[in-house]
Amino acid sequence: MRAPVFAIVVGMGLSLLLCGCGEKPIGQPCNFGWPKKADGTTNCDKYPACHPLQKDNGGVTLNNNACPIDCIQMPSLECEDLICVATQVEGNSQNVNGVCWEPQAGEPVGDCPSAPVRCKGYCTKECLTDASCPKEYKCSAMAPFGSTLKCDDEEAWDTKCTANCIPGGTSGCPNSGKDADYGICDQEDYAACCACICYQFCPILTKDFCRKRSWDEKMFEDAITNNSECGQ
Fold first, then answer.
1. pLDDT exceeds cutoff 70 at 188
2. Which of 26, 156, 190, 207 has the fewest CB atoms found within 10 Å of its own CB?
3. How many CB atoms sit inside 10 A of residue 94's CB?
């Protein structure tokens, strides 16, 4: 009787492997969180901490509903150990799979019920090939980080990471290198520091993620871009 039992156990194990049981689903909507202050509390007066979906000029007025720039927040608690992203649509300059808007009165906004801005994306995961993703997704790198970040020389992250970033040694921003204090980078006061930007986003350049192949109009019906006002 042992052989049949063993065969059943093996069969069940094979079925689990084939169906991918236990793998986190992707594609569900997720909200981007707000920046954290030095004391750990949430700042609900700025854009959600999602770089670089929206640029913040010191206010909370929306530039437009969506910008055709990839946006990543990792990790995302809403995505159960996955990441929350808003992504460009290949070959589509009018729409983006991600959106920001001004919530209606009384609309819940996560841990910031009084926040004037809300931004939404979708959950996704790292991948190796298209076969690692559902059929409506493509496995590819995030954009446009490859052209906007200067990641090659880690020793120069504190001064040359990207345009208009705050150099290390000023405003309390850390210098790059093995002794850099990257622990402060989670705080909003250091979000514009050159070293912090490189530290958070350069590792992403080496990874691919499952990206929606086409515009998800049902989830992001208001994600209409206005290229003249988009920024990073």
1. yes
2. 207
3. 13
Hey, is 227 helix, strand or coil?
helix
Bridge partner list, 92: 89
Does pTM top 0.90 for this prediction? no
Give the other-Cβ count within 10 Å of 40's Cβ: 8
In the block, residue with structure tokens 């156990």: 9
Assess whether the previous peptide bond of 144 is cis (omega < 30° from 0). yes
Q: Which amino acid is at 10?
A: V
- CA 33, CA 111: separation in Å to the nearest integer? 8
List the one residue out of 177, 175, 149, 176 whose CA is nearest residue 163. Answer: 149
Q: What is the mean pLDDT of residues 124-149?
A: 85
Q: Residue 107: in which H helix or E strand, if any?
A: none
| The two structure tokens encoding residue 93 | 């300059």
CA dihedral 41, 43, 49, 54 (to 10 degrees): 180
CA–CA separation, 100 vs 115, rounded Å?
12
Strand ranges (E), the chain: 29-31, 71-73, 83-89, 92-97, 99-101, 118-124, 126-127, 137-141, 208-212
Tell me: pLDDT of 129 over 50: yes
What CA–CA distance (Å, rounded) separates 158 from 179?
A: 12
Amino acid (1-letter code) at residue 29: P
